[in-house]
Amino acid sequence: MSRRIRRTPYTDRVEQAGVRGFSVVNHMLLPKAFQATVEEDYWHLREHVQIWDVSCQRQVQITGPDAAVLVQWMTPRNIAKARVGDCFYIPIIDAQGGMINDPVMLKLAEDRFWLSIADSDVLLYAMGLALGRGLHVEVSEPDVSPLAVQGPKAEDLLAGLFGDHIRNIRFFKFGWIDFNNTRQLIARSGYSRQGGFEIYLQGSHLGHALWDAVWEAGQAHNITPGCPNLIERIEGGLLSYGNEFTRENTPFEIGHGKFCVTDGSIDYIGRAALQAIAATGVTREIRGVAFDGGPCPTCSKPWPVMVGARQVGQITSGIWSPRLRRNVGQSMIDRDFWKAGQEVTVHSQDGVVRAGEVVALPFA
Amino acid sequence: MSRRIRRTPYTDRVEQAGVRGFSVVNHMLLPKAFQATVEEDYWHLREHVQIWDVSCQRQVQITGPDAAVLVQWMTPRNIAKARVGDCFYIPIIDAQGGMINDPVMLKLAEDRFWLSIADSDVLLYAMGLALGRGLHVEVSEPDVSPLAVQGPKAEDLLAGLFGDHIRNIRFFKFGWIDFNNTRQLIARSGYSRQGGFEIYLQGSHLGHALWDAVWEAGQAHNITPGCPNLIERIEGGLLSYGNEFTRENTPFEIGHGKFCVTDGSIDYIGRAALQAIAATGVTREIRGVAFDGGPCPTCSKPWPVMVGARQVGQITSGIWSPRLRRNVGQSMIDRDFWKAGQEVTVHSQDGVVRAGEVVALPFA
Q1: What is the DSSP code string of B39-91?
Q2: Which of A278, A321, B122, B308 has minimal CB crowding within 10 Å?
Q3: What residues of A are in contact with residue B1 (Cβ under 8 Å)?
Q4: Residue A243 above 80 pLDDT?
């Protein structure tokens, strides 16, 4: 660890809570495991509540008279439909339609947006676009560090701590809470399917206090420290930029065609490319793969998904599901083979060939 | 480890060679340690030769009629002075003069450049600038993975393997070698002060073969697997983006004013900001700090450098030097205190206060 890989406002607390390892996202630490196993964490997340340091979801703040122009130029989704208080999932694509990132956009004002990003320097991309086109915007990374509270008991915990008004915040909307004489943004969102909130803490100096407040209030709800859970994420059909999709993939291939306006009514980078794909259809798309042969190893390189001698996809994330009693994975699958029930074999990196089938996402 | 953190063409070999840990640079694995200690590695690097997987130095390739226009726009250095075959160290700065990256530019042709980057997505920045301004360029990341051969015996090793013509390549120039019926770029460069070369392997499928060829030829020269060595780097005054400097710093503060044209003869992003700084002078600059108190701990957060009760800097990389029998560190130091010999105290994260002094870089 060096300064280059940035600590977060919560890292001290995460270490005190017994973190066993970190990953790196956006040049910042993301906790990867605590003392519980990933299976124990999975069950806990489904039944109770967890506190996650997701500061690595950095905010790219775009403000100024041309802010909406710049954000719209970066995404095929029509952001004019967003109202202040909305969270919009917006694919960001290059001129060929390839995915550059898939942030959640928070509309703070008509001329102020946060893009809560996956792992690539959207800040530099937005700066480049703005400088190149001479737009009247300011692009910056504010001192904002999201803390996620995930799981079915998250609402009760946070309502007790910050007030019942947070119960009225709907999914992918945000509101505000008072904390230590500051006003903080809270959204009903998060990288799990178990419900919960993300507090976009502004002011690193408040990190310890916020962690401690949530932790204390969480004692009555059986809170544990956690992090995005691979089993839950795969089952839930939540994709990860860099894993399931890269710049090699378009929004259509990851099931996000519904966010792409291709009727010519709005302009954005990559529009011609997306229109061409919309006309012809995609040749591959993300799917689940359920496969047997006992718990699979860790997937650190893509595993070929085969139909006979033909490779029809590659599993980019895979793990044993203790609930389904099968391995679960996510894979791009070629068009001729992507129907649910298609029999495949999975060639995991331990050399074992495992029988499996294509399934819809999310897993049942 | 997941697919998001990319393996390199050499990772299999690195694992076989007993790597003990990785860091992450440009979304890619960088070996951090092998079986030897950092001190053993330090002595070995100074006396023999090492093979380093530095694939994470990704290339941003800029080609096309406006290639030189785009590269010049990104840096205050006059790139018109570069000839084909030159490696140029070029600061890349934002509109305020803050460092975005500090790549080595390789001029492959009048209309073709590689930027061999430190840890930030220059690819996205360059794409944004090109799209915004409508430049006629193609910006891409080619399949190029540098393999460094560093140490005083590197030249003999590589001359034996690829021919004596590589001896004629001067520092920060590149030439070509034949390897397995391919033509590969080789530069006299690298992230150490012990001499050596970097082979910019084009074609990931050749990774194992290249590693094996260098390894075999290296047996006669006492080769070991290695990686950038923290002791050697600090002593040598080699800075690390994200550690010693960030977007908070200008090229002047890291001693690279000599690369910045501020007379108005060329135009680039951030010119006005640099001209203003050139007129007034900088208020802090990078220095070495030598300090006592026995081997210091690992520096994972900045350590205040104090003169009495006043903080005059912060050590961002520090380690025990077995050769100098003192701790060595790098720190920005405020102008009034940056003269060599200035007495300071270093407040390392173990709570120990250590006496030290400001020294020039590189360390003697």
Answers
A1: HHHHHHHHHSEEEEE-TTS-EEEEESTTHHHHHHHH-SS-GGG--TTBEEE--
A2: B308
A3: 298, 300
A4: yes
In whole angstroms, how far apart are CA A87 and each of A91, A171, A174, A198, B13? Answer: 13, 9, 7, 12, 45
**What is the SS3 assignment for B14?**
helix
| pLDDT 10s digits, B195-246 | 999 999 999 999 999 999 999 999 999 999 999 999 999 999 999 999 999 9
Alpha-helix runs per DSSP H in B152-206: 154-162
Contacts of A127 in chain B (CB under 8 A): 94, 125, 128
Using CA atoms in the order B153, B158, B161, B163, what is the torsion angle rounded to 10 degrees? -120
Q: Which of B62, B152, B72 is nearest to B116 (CA)?
A: B62
Q: Look up residue A164 and give its two tokens.
A: 């019942």
Of the candidates A277, A356, A351, A284, the one whose C-alpha atom is nearest the C-alpha of residue A320 is A356
Note whether B2 contacts A24, CB cutoff 8 Å: no
What is the number of CB-based contacts under 8 A between chain A and chain B?
Answer: 120
Rounded CA-CA distance A226/A150 in Å is 9
The pLDDT, as a whole number, for residue B1 is: 77
Q: Which one, of B194, B234, B229, B237, lies nearest residue B361 by Cα?
A: B237
Residues 6+ apart with CB under 8 A from B76: B91, B93, B251, B259, B260, B261, B262, B266, B268, B270, B271, B274
Backbone φ/ψ region at A97: left (φ over 0), alpha (ψ -120 to 50), beta: left
DSSP state of A170: P
Record: contact A242-B2, CB cut-off 8 A: yes
| Pair A115, A16: CB distance under 8 Å | no
Which one of A27, A134, A301 has the shortest CB-CB distance to B119?
A: A27
SS3 B126: helix
- The 3-state DSSP class for residue A205 equals helix
Alpha-carbon distance B165 to nearest alpha carbon in chain A (angstroms): 38
Contact A131 B7 (CB under 8 A): no
Which of A278, A265, A160, A275 lies closest to A219, judged by CA?
Answer: A160
d(CA B117, CA B107): 14
Phi, psi of A221 (to 5 degrees): -115, 15
Q: Considering Cα of A334, then A340, then A345, then A348, what sign does the dihedral take? A: positive
Which two structure tokens, joined as six digits, stand for A83? 């109202």
Are B108 and B114 in contact by the 8 Å Cβ rule? The answer is yes
The ipTM of this complex is: 0.97
Helices (H) then strands (E): counts for chain A = 8, 21
**Which DSSP state fits A6?**
B
Chain B residue with CA closest to A12: the answer is: B301
CA neighbor of A362 nearest in space, from A287, A312, A302:
A287
- What is the Cα–Cα distance from B329 to B292, expressed in whole angstroms? 11
A120–B301 C-beta distance less than 8 A: no
Chain A residue whose CA is closest to B318: A2
The SS3 call for residue B309 is coil
The model's pLDDT over B280-289, given as tens digits with 9 standing for 90+, comes to 999 999 999 9
Note whether A121 contacts B119, CB cutoff 8 Å: no
Q: Which two tokens stand for residue A324?
A: 């389904």
Chain-centroid distance of CA B313 in Å reads: 22
User: What tokens appear for A254 in the block?
Assistant: 């990851």
Task: Report the DSSP pairing between strands A223-226 and A49-53.
Answer: parallel
pLDDT digits (tens, 9 = 90+) for B118-149: 999 999 999 999 999 999 999 999 999 999 99
